[in-house]
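Why should sequence recovery work at all? Because a backbone constrains its sequence more than one might expect. Tight turns favour small or flexible residues, buried strands favour hydrophobic ones, and helices have their own preferences. The token representation captures these environments compactly. In the example below, the structure is given first.
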């Protein structure tokens, strides 16, 4: 089943041009988006007071990546909930809410308990899942199957990128009645169409990421700074590294750097800064300057051709990735980090597909 690959995680990372194609298959039609599972509910969703995203782990991170474009394309306020935390707080959920549950397996206990809670509170419950016939798919009022194909590695990879693309299509469908955002929607739809090609291109960084991994093999910790569309990329990259490579790693909001994390910076701690082109680019340039002036050991991810724009001194290691529509850039940017986590794990001699203490589907609370 692994074909020519050594591990399922590796196979699933490299499968992403295909899995993203199947996520979109039959859903981008005549310049618009058709999600069969949502079309009867779009009117209700457009009238809701807020969208609440609920999930755990990687699925939560995918929702966080979707948050900016859902807000932008729908104009509806979006709040985020880690499923267990919503339950711990018994946080407010109202009839006027649209609660969107994101889960690869559709069987995660925390997420399903949060679903029961939202159903009791009368919210419209929408599922985003990879598993047809799962409890999540059956119990939600409506939803979208992401159709990424079976994911076997405990570390979620292809499901993450397909979840983001499914939520991009959801945002486009909800916002499709708005004339003012028509040009923006068209640009994103054309970005979706060419996304699998850009994913194939970024996968060519495999050897470079293996080389980077070998330089990090003995590090005790790895920080990842992102912001805007790529705050989620920082969290998800760090989650992959800690989960499979068993290395301490934290994803951080770059805008919070001066409020604490800066104290950690020295010449030994490796720091990945995500600085691809979008509205936050110049802010990330100044973050890099500040880290360099404290002798930070930087690895900068930037758009192709931007190496000297992000690191004029030439003292950072640079990862250049293909540029796509800004809101879809997280789909591209996570892939070098998935490859990095994979190679770090192999080089450190840990089990890639069955990380210590973890299970693919967390069915207990
Ligand atoms: C559906 C078919 C697909 C077919 C296509 C043709 C299924 C599973 N899908 O896809 O095989 O090619 O029509 O038009 O038979 N749902 C939930 N919660 C969830 C996920 C989905 O309630 O978490 C519901 C949806 O609201 C929908 C149904 O499940 O009623 C199928 O969803 P989805 O597979 O996304 O719909 P289509 O893309 O239309
Ligand atoms: O099946 P789900 O998407 O609900 O799973 C949620 C988390 O348990 C899962 O994403 C976990 O964080 C992964 N092992 C991350 O790679």
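From this structural description, the recovered sequence reads:
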């Amino acid at each position: 089943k692994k074909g020519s690959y050594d591990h399922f995680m590796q196979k699933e990372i490299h499968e992403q041009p295909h899995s993203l194609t199947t996520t979109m298959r039959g859903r981008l039609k005549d310049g618009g988006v058709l999600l069969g599972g949502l079309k009867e509910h779009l009117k209700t969703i457009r009238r809701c007071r807020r969208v609440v995203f609920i999930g755990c782990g990687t699925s939560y991170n995918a929702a966080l990546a979707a948050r900016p474009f859902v807000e932008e394309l729908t104009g509806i306020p979006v709040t985020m909930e880690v499923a267990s935390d919503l339950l711990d707080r018994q946080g407010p959920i109202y009839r006027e809410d649209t609660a969107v549950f994101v889960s690869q397996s559709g069987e995660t206990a925390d997420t399903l308990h949060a679903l029961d809670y939202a159903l009791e509170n009368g919210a419209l419950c929408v599922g985003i899942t990879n598993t047809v016939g799962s409890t999540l798919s059956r119990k939600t009022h409506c939803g979208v199957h992401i159709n990424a194909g079976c994911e076997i590695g405990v570390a979620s990879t292809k499901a993450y990128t397909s979840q983001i693309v499914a939520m991009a299509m959801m945002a486009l469908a909800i916002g499709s009645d708005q004339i003012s955002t028509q040009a923006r929607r068209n640009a994103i739809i054309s970005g979706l169409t060419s996304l699998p090609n850009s994913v194939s291109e970024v996968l060519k960084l495999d050897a470079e990421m293996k080389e980077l991994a070998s330089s990090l093999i003995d590090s005790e910790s790895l920080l990842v700074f992102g912001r805007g569309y790529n705050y989620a990329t920082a969290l998800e990259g760090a989650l992959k590294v800690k989960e499979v490579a068993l290395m301490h790693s934290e994803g951080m909001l770059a805008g919070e750097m001066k409020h604490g994390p800066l104290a950690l910076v020295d010449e030994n701690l490796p720091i990945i800064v995500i600085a691809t082109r979008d509205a936050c680019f110049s802010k990330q340039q100044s973050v890099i300057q500040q880290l360099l002036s404290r002798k930070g050991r930087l690895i900068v991810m930037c758009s192709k051709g931007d190496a000297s724009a992000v690191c004029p001194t030439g003292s950072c290691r640079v990862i250049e990735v293909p540029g796509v529509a800004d809101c879809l850039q997280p789909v591209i940017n996570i892939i070098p980090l998935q490859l990095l986590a994979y190679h770090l794990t192999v080089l450190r001699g840990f089990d890639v597909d069955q990380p210590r203490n973890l299970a693919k589907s967390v069915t207990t609370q």
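A few observations help interpret the result. Residues 36-37, 127, 129, 132, 136-137, 140, 142-145 surround uridine-diphosphate-N-acetylglucosamine (ligand 1) (CB under 6 Å).
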